[in-house]
Amino acid sequence: MTTSTDTPAQITDTVRGIVAEVLAVPADALSLDTDLRGVEGADSIKVLRMIARIEREFDVELEDEDVFGVSTIAEVSDVVRKAL
Q1: Is there a contact between 54 and 77 (Cβ–Cβ < 8 Å)?
Q2: Residue 1: inside a domain, yes or no?
Q3: Structural domain of residue 41, as residue ranges?
Q4: Is the pLDDT of residue 83 over 70?
């Protein structure tokens, strides 16, 4: 589990790793500005899995309106940082 003392870069790297694993794509294929809705194989179930894994990893509860209002790794990382 990560902690609230993680740097923004560490949070982003963790989020990118979770996204890559859930969507079954190489992490280095995902830039900070990649629109996650456009990644091959991404669907609503995988997005929910991603969010659940991120919440467990960071021990936070993300608000639905925050989560569903973002579409890139950078934006998801920002939501996580605000929740920490």
Answers
A1: no
A2: no
A3: 8-83
A4: yes
